[in-house]
Amino acid sequence: MTATVPPTGRRRGHTARWVAVAVGLIIALFVGVLATRSPAIDTEADTPLLGRQAPPIEGPGLDGGTVRLADHRGKFVLINFFNSWCVPCREEHPELVKFAARHAATGDAVVLGVIRDDTPDEVRRYRTEHGGDWPVVDDPRGVVALDYGVRGQPETFIVAPDGTIVARYISRITADGVDETLRRYRGSGA
């Protein structure tokens, strides 16, 4: 009696083809979802620092002086962790310029930059080309970033006039988005 061997090579070929088609469809759907969704802008994130006093910031500024968070008590302070080569930081920079200009006249809010993974010379060069006259502190050892639990850049915290942290953004921000956060905070009676 002769044993008949089923043509398994052909079945495997068909199975592999169907698996490849299914994986391709899943990848295409995933790429489609990512490509059509809105970019992460004005994304507020939780942090154990919310509602607590902001950790102190004090260090060398780009102008050679000392930058202190405490010098801005009584105003909203937008603390922005950034660097000059980060693409999302570059995309959000015009929004920081717009926010700073809006609040310069009223004096109710300021931007305070913290350099993360960059050099003061590169940041100076970038600001000369793209604007921005707010204080910037150098954080070469990452101590300030560590105190705030910063994982990347851009990352932004809003400190209320009483020194408490009221918001954290883990993505690019817009001037309008930050102003909406300030309105919500003011409207909450806090």
Descriptive report:
This protein has 190 residues and is α/β, with parallel strands linked by helices. It has helices at residues 8-36, 87-104, 120-130, 143-148, 175-187, and strands at 58-60, 66-68, 76-82, 109-115, 136-138, 155-159, 165-169. The strands form two sheets. It has a five-stranded mixed β-sheet with strand order 5-4-3-6-7, covered by helices on one side. Helix 2 crosses helix 5 (175-187). The model is unreliable at 34-40 (pLDDT under 50). The longest helix has 29 residues, at 8-36. It has two domains: 1-37; 58-187, Glutaredoxin (3-Layer(aba) Sandwich).
Distance between the termini: 91 Å
Which structural class do you get from the secondary structure elements? alpha/beta
Radius of gyration: 25 Å
Show unreliable segments. Answer: 34-40
How many structural units, i.e. domains?
Answer: 2
Helix content: 40-55%
Helices and strands, in N-to-C order?
HEEEHEHEHEEH
Q: Do you know the CATH topology of the largest domain? A: Glutaredoxin
- Top CATH class of the largest domain: Alpha Beta
Name given to the CATH homologous superfamily of the largest domain: Glutaredoxin
Q: How is the largest sheet built, in terms of strand order?
A: 5-4-3-6-7
Query: What is the overall silhouette?
Result: elongated
What is the tally of beta strands?
A: 7
Question: Biggest β-sheet: count, sense, barrel?
Answer: 5 strands, mixed
Compute the average pLDDT.
85
Percentage of residues in strands? 15-25%
Tally of helical runs: 5
